Predict the structure.
Amino acid sequence: MKNIVVLVSGGGTNLQALINAEKSGIIKNGKITCVISSNPEAYALERAKNNGIDTDVIRRRDYKEFSDYDKALTALLRSKNADLIVLAGFMTILGKEVISAFENRIINIHPALIPSFCGEGFYGLKVHEKALEKGVKVTGATAHFVTEECDGGPIIIQKAVDIKNGDTPEILQKRVMEEAEWKILPRAVSLFCEDKIKVIGNKTEIL
Ligand code: GRF
């Protein structure tokens, strides 16, 4: 059984999707053992507590140097015996130390079809605003491993979502979450826990 540690900053609907998936058996061979938030007020922490999951908080602003924060987060994740780390709306950039300590063991969910609408500055509603501005007809979500290149790591699963007449960034964000993020993130997590993801360079093969 693999220990899954979920990093959050906000509402935690992706965390909720993971909790539900664990309960219903969609996640095989994995257990959410801890939820760590960058924000002590995050509602995601309530979701964890309501489900009897251990919680912790680490704030970037409590460390003067970024490298000290990077070290502290790495040590915290090690102390939790994390086998897999899931970024579920975690709004703080990860540093080199934590990324290399957990190479190919950190999964992020991005609300677009990478390599579209991704990279620095593409987070939250901005992603959907840009997709609507461009007039693409299809967007979606991507579950991928985290590397030092922002949104550039090996892709695990993608799911497309249609854009409809009259969509606003808010409407589109909700549809992408419901139809794509909440489905593919638990699937990617289960594939990892079942050792079914083979990483070859910057690509993956699902076994
Ligand atoms: C999601 O859109 C996710 O793709 C992005 O941040 C948002 C998190 O929402 N990385 P929630 O906290 O899971 O509700």
About this structure: The first helix runs from residue 13 to 23. The chain has a mean pLDDT of 98.
